[in-house]
UniProtKB/TrEMBL annotation:
Primary gene name: LOC106178055
InterPro entries: CNKSR, CRIC_domain, SAM, SAM/pointed_sf
Pfam families, alphabetized: CRIC_ras_sig, SAM_1
Regions that span the bilayer: none
Domain SAM span(s) in chain numbering: 9-74
Protein name: Connector enhancer of kinase suppressor of ras 3-like
Species for this entry: Lingula anatina (Brachiopod)
Domain CRIC per the UniProt entry, residue ranges: 82-144
Length: 144
């Protein structure tokens, strides 16, 4: 896949990209065109920007911002990352989750003699989020 410089996309290209995300994004096509959101602006969109142009549904905002984050990740790291580095990063993050889970289970079982898997501490959930983010980047790299 050839390198695509998203930063030079015109508003029409950005609007076409938006249409390709999901059918639910079709109503927002003209919002992006009317606001002249180009590639440079797309890469720095925020929740406030989306609210300002009329995209108020949280789920739609999440979808757009997640897609722009993925697009930015691909744009900025396409040349610098390769499969081996992504696999190593994923393996390291997965080991961190594994170690945190083992530590939390052993701490809880030593404190009261039983393990309560009712909740996970915030640090473990954060680590799981990092694994998912790294995995998404890896899948995107493979899918390019």
């Amino acid at each position: 896949m050839a390198f695509v410089n998203i930063a030079i996309w015109k508003p029409e290209q950005v609007a076409e990209w938006l249409k390709g995300l999901d059918d639910a994004m079709l109503p927002y096509y003209h919002f992006f065109l009317n606001e002249s959101i180009d590639g440079k602006h797309l890469m720095s969109l925020t929740y406030d920007d989306l609210d300002r142009i009329g995209i108020t549904k949280i789920g739609h905002q999440e979808m757009i911002l997640e897609a722009t984050n993925l697009l930015a990740s691909l744009h900025y790291s396409l040349e610098s990352e390769h499969l081996q580095s992504l696999a190593l990063k994923l393996g390291g993050k997965a080991r961190l989750v594994h170690n945190h889970l083992r530590m939390n289970i052993s701490l809880r079982s030593s404190v009261n003699g039983s393990v309560h898997p009712d909740y996970l501490p915030t640090d473990v959930l954060s680590d799981i989020s990092h694994v998912v983010t790294t995995l998404k980047t890896m899948v995107s790299w493979l899918d390019r």
